[in-house]
From TrEMBL:
Belongs to the tRNA(Ile)-lysidine synthase family. One of its GO terms (molecular function) is tRNA(Ile)-lysidine synthase activity. It comes from Seohaeicola saemankumensis. ATP binds at S35, G36, G37, G38, D39, S40. The keyword ATP-binding applies. This is tRNA(Ile)-lysidine synthase. It catalyses: cytidine(34) in tRNA(Ile2) + L-lysine + ATP = lysidine(34) in tRNA(Ile2) + AMP + diphosphate + H(+). The N-terminal region contains the highly conserved SGGXDS motif, predicted to be a P-loop motif involved in ATP binding. InterPro entries: Rossmann-like_a/b/a_fold (IPR014729), TilS/TtcA_N (IPR011063), tRNA_Ile_lys_synt (IPR012094), tRNA_Ile_lys_synt_N (IPR012795). PANTHER family: TRNA(ILE)-LYSIDINE SYNTHASE-RELATED (PTHR43033). The gene is tilS. CDD domains: TilS_N. It is an enzyme of class 6 (ligase). It is found in: Cytoplasm.
Length: 420
């Protein structure tokens, strides 16, 4: 038996991988995120074949980021291709670019959010993405250039939860060339993105670098196996960190209290993982804080004091480090009462479209005379969810003023996988 079996990269194997992923979704509707490129269109065809005759609904979705002149026409073309396949298709428009910050990162976050909201509305539990082995290899090289560690180099996961939806990448073991050959074989069309040849893009340069590594015997398949090995190391580290967190991290409603002195006895990488997981949980963050920020917090250990990282406040007192949400990070966050707020709070009570959830803040705390009896820190309460009618406070369940409302965390810290 080979220890490193070479994945079979034929179209038939890709078909089997897509069918398996879809079977794992249960009986519900499935969607394919289609950019229009060869990878996601091959995925759409494979998903269509997997579902043919099952009666299970398949949908397709495209996000038009509006960042290139051709994007609307491309989305319309995807829509026509889907129509020809009998797959209902939706185009979701993004117009949230502020002109500031990292455009690619913002576009990606918005894409996931738009597609998740759409999927939830449609009752779709699983969305398939067309990432391939080439994407994996290019990402690996790009991350090497950013001094990535075990997490960054372990490759994309085949399945993950984000924004309330399960995302699945059934094609991670398959080459772009295999998928394009499959499309050609079945006479199917796809859109060639002109930026694929634009060397201003890091991914395009990574693709060229990968070709240059061929004389060393390094290709996408080899890098994929290296990534699998790093993934296994990451899983082992995560398991150790989760066990450590169970012993040394206590959840108090929305806050976490870390036994800082207890943690200090453990290897730096485990301490770092516990701290990152804690920060990401309190902030409901999809991405970890900068590595240097975390390392500086860890090296600062022992001294009483306060820090702010990733929209969380860390307050150390003696052996305990309390992490709670920072008011400034949520001061402008307002949402309907029947939706999760700040990624982790659900409020139960007499829902009403005229009401909304927003942070309690100083303006609300003033109307909570009993807040001291709750035992919560004042600064933590400021960032806690409250029910408002316009600017009038209706209820503050965590600050002793429930008025028929209660607040609960949707996924407790220790139930959440310790991986980022
Ligand atoms: N505009 C889009 N609309 C719908 N789906 C998309 C869009 N862009 C990308 N996708 C989905 O994501 C997959 C990966 O695309 P791509 O590699 O361009 O994105 P990425 O930003 O690198 O993704 P990630 O951040 O998830 O690694 C595509 O195969 C497709 O399934």
């Amino acid at each position: 038996m080979s220890l490193n079996p070479k994945p079979d990269d034929s179209a038939a194997a890709a078909q089997a991988a897509v069918s398996t992923s879809i079977d794992q979704a249960g009986d519900g509707a499935v969607a394919v995120a289609v950019s229009g490129g060869g990878d996601s269109l091959a995925l759409l065809h494979l998903a269509c074949r997997a579902l043919a005759g099952t009666g299970r609904p398949l949908r397709a979705v495209t996000v038009d980021h509006g960042l290139r002149a051709e994007s609307a026409a491309e989305a319309a073309r995807v829509s026509r291709l889907c129509q020809a396949l009998g797959v209902p298709h939706a185009t979701l428009a993004w117009d949230g670019w502020t002109g500031r910050g990292n455009l690619q990162a913002q576009a990606r976050a918005a894409r996931y959010q738009l597609m998740a909201d759409w999927a939830l509305e449609q009752g779709i539990g699983m969305v398939l993405l067309g990432h391939t082995r080439d994407d994996q290899a290019e990402t690996f090289l790009m991350r090497l250039g950013r001094t990535a560690g075990v997490d960054g180099l372990s490759g994309m996961v085949a399945r993950f939860q984000r924004n309330g939806v399960t995302w699945c990448r059934p094609l991670l073991e398959f080459d772009r060339a295999t998928l394009r050959a499959f499309l050609r074989d079945i006479g199917a069309d796809w859109i060639e993105d002109p930026s694929n040849d634009d060397r201003r893009f890091e991914r395009v340069r990574a693709r060229a670098s990968l070709e240059a590594l061929a004389p060393l015997g390094i290709d996408a398949a080899i890098l994929s196996r290296v990534m699998q090995q790093i993934s296994q190391a990451r899983e082992a580290l995560d398991a150790c960190a989760a066990a450590l967190a169970r012993d040394l991290v206590r959840q108090e409603q929305g806050d976490l209290v870390l036994d800082w002195a207890g943690l200090a006895a453990h290897p730096l990488e485990l301490r770092r993982r516990v701290l990152v997981a804690a920060l990401m949980w309190v902030a409901s963050a999809a991405y970890p804080p900068r590595r240097e920020d975390v390392l500086s917090l860890l090296s600062d250990g022992g001294a009483d004091g306060q820090h702010t990282v990733l929209g969380c406040v860390l307050r150390q007192k003696g052996h305990a480090l309390r992490i709670f949400r920072e008011f400034n990070a949520v001061r402008d966050l307002r949402g309907p009462t029947d939706r999760v707020w700040d990624g982790r709070w659900r409020l139960d009570g007499p829902h009403d479209p005229a009401l909304s959830i927003a942070a309690l803040g100083e303006a609300g705390l003033r109307f909570c005379p009993d807040w001291r009896e709750t035992g919560h820190l004042r600064a933590a309460l400021l960032a806690s969810p409250a029910i408002w009618r316009g600017d009038t406070l209706v209820a503050a369940p965590l600050a002793g003023s429930g008025q028929g409302w209660s607040a609960r965390i949707v996924a407790d810290f220790h139930d959440r996988a310790l991986s980022h």
